[in-house]
Amino acid sequence: MEQAAEITILDGVHLDAERRFLHDWFRTAPGFRGSVRTPAPPPESGKLGGVSDVLVVVFGAGGTATLFVKHMADWLVARRPKVHIKVTGPNGRTVEVETENLTGDQLSDVVSKVVHPEDRA
């Protein structure tokens, strides 16, 4: 069954650069080629369409979902200085993460809670 997670970068030093880097991170990751998109936001009244601040990553259940958690945690660990993101899982559950002072294992655990909520108490 195909699922998707939405990732929003809420705060960081260079938001546009972080969004592009995250998009490229997943676009080139094994198992995710062709599974990453940035939906166009609805245009504001009297303005042209804007740039999306949401990245959608589509993945299957099981192994691909676990791979999503690993790639997401690896990207978060690589972020310096800190970045603040929101991840919304396929079931609508949301978690916000700030990368400062978190290890890769801690980041994996947090992201996993939205992708595999049935595994968490």
Give me some keywords for this one:
single chain, 121 residues, alpha+beta, 5-stranded antiparallel β-sheet, 3 helices, 5 strands
Explain the overall architecture.
With 121 residues, the protein is of the alpha+beta class. It is built from three helices and five strands. It has helices spanning 15-27, 63-78, 104-115; strands at 2-11, 36-37, 54-60, 84-88, 94-98. A hairpin with a 5-residue loop joins strand 4 and strand 5 (94-98). Helix 2 crosses helix 3. The longest helix has 16 residues, at 63-78. It is globular and about 45 Å long. The two termini are 23 Å apart. The relative contact order is 0.21. The mean pLDDT is 79.
Short description:
The protein has 121 residues and is α+β, with helices and mostly antiparallel strands. The chain has helices spanning 15-27, 63-78, 104-115, and strands at residues 2-11, 36-37, 54-60, 84-88, 94-98.
